[in-house]
Request: fold
Amino acid sequence: MRRRIAVPLVAGALALVGASAAEAATLSVAGGKSCYRAGDSLILSGTGYTPSAPVAITLQGKQLGTLTADAAGNISSPLQIGRLSGVSQRKLIATDSANPANTATTQFLGSALVVKVKPRNGSAARKLRLNASGFTTGKRLYAHVLRKHFRRNILIGKLKGPCRTLSVRKRVLQPGTATGIYTVQFDTKKRYSKQTKVRYRFRVTVT
Reply:
């Protein structure tokens, strides 16, 4: 029987596998990435649960839903990562509803896809404090400044670590930039494209 996890992260179909249910519960995640961000997927798998019983899943203490163990006491389900904040280890817990003392825990490293910019408005000549994370599609972060027919591509810096983080002070707009509202798109591409999926955008007002 197939069930779904009704969760903010994902609705995922069960893929049943076979293993011994006599063991203590175990839980693991697999997905081939050292850091996950919104839109990424991983596989949650567990063994050692009561056969055919519900298994409650929580993430960071928040109830996600339940899976049903198969006849051998195993669970397996794809999870698509939803909205995250910050960069940290996220804890998943699977609890045997028929035997609440039978639980297992696993973790994955997750990151928000974000660029925090300070200040957002003011003189074009001012250097901005940029704190970025979650740009796991490349090794360098670029900013693309857009306004009507105006385009400018700027290398912000090299991204570091599994979650591709960066903290730097950088001048994004050139001195003498005309007053007005500009859109700035951050991504890991040298050239701007509205087709780029992994991106972070904000608007800045030049006064």
The two ends are 61 Å apart (CA to CA). Residues 27 and 46 are 4 Å apart (CA to CA). The chain has two domains: 26-110, 114-206. The chain has no helices and 14 strands.
